[in-house]
Amino acid sequence: MIKKILLYVLHLDRRQKKLLLIATDVIVLPLSMYTAYALKLGRLVPLEELHRSWWILFLFPLVTIPIYMKSGFYQSVLRYMGMNAVRATIESVTLAILIIGFLMMIVKDLTFPRSVLIIFWFVAIILTIGNRYLARWLLYTFTDRGRKDSKAVAIYGAGKAGAMLVDSIRQNDKYNLIGLIDDDSQKWGTILNSETIHPPDAIPELVQNRNLKLVFLAIPSLSRSLRRALLKMITQYPVEVRELPGLEKIIDGNISVDNVVKVEVEDILGREPVTPIKGLLEKNITGKSVLVTGAGGSIGSELCRQILELKPEKLVLLERSEFNLYSVTQEGVVGENSNKVIPILGSILNEEQVYNAMTAHKVQTVYHAAAYKHVPMVEINPIAGVWNNVIGTFRVATAAANADVESFVLISTDKAVRPTNVMGASKRFAELILQALNDQHPETCFTMVRFGNVLDSAGSVVPLFRKQIAEGGPVTVTHPEVLRYFMSIPEAVQLVIQAGAMADGGEVFVLDMGSPVKILDLAYKMIYLCGLKPKDEEFPQGDIPVEITGLRPGEKLYEELLIGNNTAKTDHPRIMKAKEDSIDWVTINKAVTELRHHCNEQDRAAVISTLRKFVKEYTPYVAES
């Protein structure tokens, strides 16, 4: 019966709950005054003794409740009392006593002891706060509310932002705040807004014993490097992480759960950016006509964004996918620069179309991003991969040489180093084409930039894992020891532009990819960031199954960025350059003719054989699972 009544009260709407609390205070405030009077006299006071001062009993709620309303005291209806509510109570009761004391002086009521007001101050605060605590205990603990129906959350950061976030979380039925976490040892065990502050190593205990599911990161002033280190620590545990977007929200006093954003795995894998060298960014772009092949792809579209920011005279977009070309011109890449942008629906394999575009728009710089990059797909379709990556590169690069383009930059890959798959071998062959062309046509500076995986690009492992987790698994990892380098798309593109500006011609630029990441660890962190637990042989009770599927044909455990050791530093701390073995133009021409013939004949074995003949480091194999 009692539980039914409490559940009924709990499900009242906000307005009804406010009215219920006001009605409670109408009773509590006169009761507080009577209690104060009794304490003053040291005995229970018959009501007839108060007949001359009866108006004071009714005056306190009349004065105090409007002050409560004005202070926002009723905004946290039936919520756990925090320090803001306690402070509002003290301020409101104090102001009410001053007002009533002033009225008593005016009416000159000498029968009522003035010292009762002081006692009333203590009693009213204790009873008002106490009845809120009692309501919280009855309604949220006795009825199990906040344990079954809401998500257990903690706030990391016991500063100003954390304190402001506490009140917002308490007003949301979806969350059950179980404490704060901070790395300042002086705060451990102390109380903030009635919540205990825990050390970071208490997270496992909170996960296991309190079913912690979500951590709000409330330290907006944290540097990128410290933030990343903190996120790496938190993501060892199966908790979702969200964070406040910036300091401006604190300055505006506008902290709430509506401000928080979800932390993605990119935030953990990223790194501290290096300030770009302005002169290098502008050298081949500002005031020049620039062409981007594969303009609708992950790298190509980001190239377009950054190129437009550098104010080219003209930007030519070459893209064979109508949808991708439409998307890149509509998603804000063009915007106010629409008069500078020329979208061309076409293929790098159409040499005449490419040449005509270059000459018509007087192209001075080319960024060649068009390629087939998905290793398993190219391994299954080697003829299509070679046709696009090798023949396509040959035709667009030859067109650039014939059109007197000043600078040509090939976007290459770490899989071109000692390749074990067709995609890597085709990209290495594309590099050889540029090296030979650079000797044959020195008026055009041909260069290539080699880097590893980019986060969230089409076909990469991050969006695949994200999709698998959303579908409930399994998350598939090819081998428990597979390592890969990762870089954000914006950083990779920024470094590509700067590397191309440093080129003398024929060299390979290699980007510093940072530390390699174990793909299995990446899968676990992505599962944890969703507030879930991986399910494997060690943890059979998990939420998302993780399956080891075995290395795919041509897949390496480790990727490399250099073929030899002939590297040199550049003006940029994250860009190195190398001179690697090349093939003369006559031999390259012969090899391309041979590959073109085998592709036309759809002779898969001959295509692979020709690749092996001219890409000396290419060793195809099918790895065992």
Any key phrases for this structure?
Rossmann fold, 23 strands, elongated, 9-stranded mixed sheet, 7-stranded mixed sheet, alpha/beta
Question: Mind explaining what this structure looks like?
Answer:
The protein is an alpha/beta fold and 625 residues long. The chain folds into 3 domains: 141 residues, no CATH class; 113 residues, NAD(P)-binding Rossmann-like Domain (Rossmann fold), CATH 3.40.50; 261 residues, NAD(P)-binding Rossmann-like Domain (Rossmann fold, 3-Layer(aba) Sandwich). 46% of the residues lie in helices and 15% in strands. The protein contains 22 helices and 23 strands. A 9-stranded mixed β-sheet has the order 10-9-8-11-12-13-18-23-22, with helices on both faces. Strands 3-4-2-1-5-6-7 form a 7-stranded mixed β-sheet, with helices on both faces. A 3-stranded parallel β-sheet has the order 15-21-20. α2 crosses α3, α14 runs parallel beside α16 and α21 runs antiparallel to α22. The two termini are 62 Å apart.
CATH superfamily of the largest domain: NAD(P)-binding Rossmann-like Domain
Strand content: 5-15%
CA(first)-CA(last) distance = 62 Å
Strand order of the largest sheet: 10-9-8-11-12-13-18-23-22
Mean pLDDT: 81
Multimeric state? single chain
Instruction: Name the CATH class of the largest domain.
Output: Alpha Beta
- Quickly give the structural class: alpha/beta
> Remind me, CATH topology of the largest domain?
Rossmann fold
| Form type | elongated
Describe the sheet with the most strands.
9 strands, mixed
Amount of helix: 40-55%
Q: What is the second-level CATH architecture of the largest domain? A: 3-Layer(aba) Sandwich
Give the number of domains: 3
